[in-house]
Amino acid sequence: MENLISDLEILDKKDEACEVVHVSKDVHTGNARKLYIESYGCQMNFSDSEIVASILKKDGFDTTSDVLQADVILLNTCSIREKAEQTVRSRLNYLNSLKKHKPELLVGVLGCMAERLKSKLLEEEKIVDLVAGPDAYRDLPNLISQVDDGAKAVNTFLSREETYADISPVRLNSNGVTAFISIMRGCDNMCTFCVVPFTRGRERSRDPHSIVNEARELYNNGYREVTLLGQNVDSYKWSAEENNKAWIEKSQVAEVINFAQLLEMVAQVSPNLRVRFSTSHPKDITDEVLHTMAKYANICKSIHLPVQSGNSRILELMNRGYTREWYLEKVRKIREVLGNDCSISSDMITGFCTETEEEHQDTLTLMDVVQFDFAYMFFYSERPGTLAAKKWKDDISLDIKKYRLDQIISKQREHSLLRNKQDVGKIFEVLVEGISKRSETYLQGRNSHNKVIVFPQEGFQKGEYVNVLIEACTGGTLVGKVVSRY
Ligand code: SAH
Ligand code: SF4
Ligand code: F3S
Questions:
Q1: Which pLDDT tens digit goes with each residue over 28-38?
Q2: Of 108, 139, 398, 431, which one has the fewest beta carbons inside 10 Å?
Q3: Which ligand lies nearest the alpha carbon of 353?
Q4: Average pLDDT over residues 432-443
Q5: Which atom of ligand 2 is nearest to the CA of 231?
Q6: Residues 222, 434: contact at Cβ < 8 Å?
Q7: Is the C-beta atom of 281 inside 6 A of ligand 1?
């Protein structure tokens, strides 16, 4: 056990530092051409790559996990911070070396960087043959054939309607137990630091009927957990009138479906299907959502509620639409409705334009009050075209941004460990997801609070629910033993 704990501590540090990259898996259906997709950025991007794989499967492609086997290489990219774009540029440099040996190789850029830079990418990165924005994936077969005919191809048209509702994603990184379902696209919020509204376009919600069908199909195929995805899930709103009148006649449900109602519809697919969701915006999450969470045992008690800053003046400059007090009141409400049986996680940015030392201290004191279970933390990276870039100087030096970031990271480490220590001695229901990344003789899964739990194998199977008694922990993982199964 002690060896395991020290291995886990080393890996916790690696997890904090690493940027996740998802690579397509090997699928052989006898299709002629091989597609390799690499995805950067958020879960929405990973989910989009599954839609791309599905569209191209119909067009004669099988996916591969080996970049050297590929006929077509697609990078599904992220623009959220400058570093994310730099990672993609250095990856394109490496792909350039492959193209020298295999000139017929097609290299395409998808996602947010494609949308932000459009045809400029073709000029800047000479090896790129194809550029497709997040709403242009249905056009990929056509774009690929343009490249096959010797042209370069670009489609960065942003749509007000596209939700890919009818496309059944090819699960690329799946453990066969947990899956993502996109419920909406785009974002209308205009946080001043954020590039997403420019790269993803206007917010639109997907037909709830197609979401429930996708969840049901996943359940029938052995999946036991779905995560409903959107940049701001709490503003999900689907209206039959606006979207499709025929639908309401077919299903006979209320004319407007909000997020709480959608959550309930998905929770009712089966009590054995867990439901998660991300991301919640503090200004939009409603009491109705909290009560729906309380009503269904299979809705996981975990809320990702990014605060960004603990200071009201900075929050106003960020255009987040809430103050420090409003945020703390939301947290109080969550605890009132769900008690301590709900984890709360956050995102935070240090060194936003004009942030003073005292204002940074406000973020630290807010962290002390809330004690987040987990957080993603960044220093501010100015993005061209955003409101902040247009209006204000990026005036906090990199050294100060990084110094403040170190402070919030070490505070969060303390809190994560503290919150995990409070779980030692408790028994949690865990959905088994597979072999532990840490040790071959252990399995891993998560509890309702989204905490990773590692325990000895003892013949338990993926997709099974077991009760685990927690015996030890690190800041990132709980370790225990199974005391009963279902
Ligand atoms: N829709 C989600 C966040 C999506 S982006 C929300 O509203 O919370 C994920 C996180 O990246 C953000 O929460 C923010 O903390 C961070 N981020 C976004 N733009 C950034 C920038 N310009 N510099 C640094 N971090 C940024
Ligand atoms: Fe960006 Fe704000 Fe939209 Fe999140 S809510 S994606 S931070 S604009
Ligand atoms: Fe990145 Fe685009 Fe997601 S900018 S975080 S991939 S929406």
A1: 777 789 999 99
A2: 398
A3: 1
A4: 90
A5: 6
A6: no
A7: yes
